């Protein structure tokens, strides 16, 4: 709490090509099987809603959301390990939920590793529930790992 009171202000804006070096660096420090720089570039080219959270003129987190056919899919959500537990992940998630609502989407979906207890806690806190399992969805050092599919229905004001 004392740390949070001393934290600088942050802002969320659209991701730009110039952000990709910082985004890829955070990705590499965050995941055992990170997305490549090219995957992020393709997300921008594909028009996915890609956001960055800026702190002291640096990217401190990002989120990628695809919206199609009345459904939104959270493809990535990540906060720089240096800046975790400061509420930034929740702010990015809320920004993505806001984008989905603005697009009149009825449901937001995402995949998460069942072993990722931190992310699961965040998603459950924001009202996501598990609706399915995708067997052997993720790479893992022990072969493949299932994905939990989580969903949140959006109703106006929720
Ligand atoms: C998941 C992630 C985005 C959370 O970001 P964060 O900025 O650290 O999280 P916040 O500070 O916004 O915390 C929001 C909620 O998340 C949960 N949470 C955050 N850190 C946690 C921890 N260390 N242990 C358990 N729950 C935690 C809590 O529910 C928390 O709410 P609370 O503070 O009221 O308890 C971050 O840990 C991350 O980038 N992880 C690596 C990438 C990843 O796994 N992304 C998800 C892919 S599906």
How is this structure best summarized?
The protein has 5 helices and 7 strands, in the order H-E-H-H-E-E-E-H-E-H-E-E. The protein has 158 residues and is an alpha+beta fold. A 7-stranded mixed beta sheet has the order 1-2-3-4-5-7-6, sandwiched between helices.
Name the CATH homologous superfamily: Gcn5-related N-acetyltransferase (GNAT)
Separate helix tally: 5
Instruction: Determine the strand fraction and express it as a percent band.
Output: 35-45%
Structural category is alpha+beta
Tell me how many strands there are: 7
Round the mean pLDDT to the nearest integer and report it: 95
The geometry reads as globular
Radius of gyration (CA) equals 15 Å
Order of helices and strands: HEHHEEEHEHEE
The largest pleated sheet is described as: 7 strands, mixed
What are the segments in which pLDDT stays under 50 over at least 5 consecutive residues?
none
Helix content: 25-40%
Q: Give the second-level CATH assignment, the architecture.
A: 3-Layer(aba) Sandwich
CATH topology: Aminopeptidase
